[in-house]
Amino acid sequence: MADIITLGLEAAAGGLFGLVGTTIGRVAGFFERGQKHTQEQARWGHEYRLHELNMRARSQETEMELALAAQSGSWKGLEASIKAEASMGKASQWVVNILRLVRPVVTLSLWLITMMIFLHTQNEAIVEAVVFAASAATLWWFGDRAPKAMIKTS
Description:
With 154 residues, this protein is an all-alpha fold. The chain has three helices and no strands.
């Protein structure tokens, strides 16, 4: 009889030990899944930040392309203006002199109007806009207008 009781106790102890081992394995699996989930969240967060950086880079690239297109258009406009002036051909000297006075007279008038607006208006936004426009016009009119070298022909 003692052998049957011993066998029963051994079976119960083995079953209990097996149950404890299974419980420990399940608890360890629970923590392992938690770690795996945390690692996945970190990876997803990294991918999300990388995606945001790529979007910002594409946005900046698009802005740069737009700025380059605008700059290119500006240079093409200046080039067309210079070509138009050069294509006038020969004219009498008094016409040439009057044409050469147009820009300085218009520029002086523009800056006098700018000064009058500056002195008489209280709105800073208007003053800033007028000064910007006058500066842009002046630089446009006189930009790249260096004297040309005289070539002597015999």
